[in-house]
UniProtKB/TrEMBL annotation:
InterPro entries assigned: DUF2007 (IPR018551), N-reg_PII-like_a/b (IPR011322)
Pfam families the UniProt entry points to: DUF2007
Positions of the DUF2007 domain: 2-60
Organism: Salipiger pallidus
The protein's name in its UniProt record: DUF2007 domain-containing protein
Amino acid sequence: MRTTDITLIPLVRTLLDGEGIDSFELDVNMSILEGSIGILPRRLMVRSGDLPRARMVLYENGVDFEG
């Protein structure tokens, strides 16, 4: 998932953690360097084996992870 919405990543991480799916946030340092004005997106990654289940969790909770 890629987003500039700073509230979305903690929500998604909480949903995934609740299902036992590990996630890892990328581009945090780049976002800090740009001054946290929200122009550089952050990415949230899961293991490839967890991807189908992670997508289902997000879909069931109404999280738009495609756009």
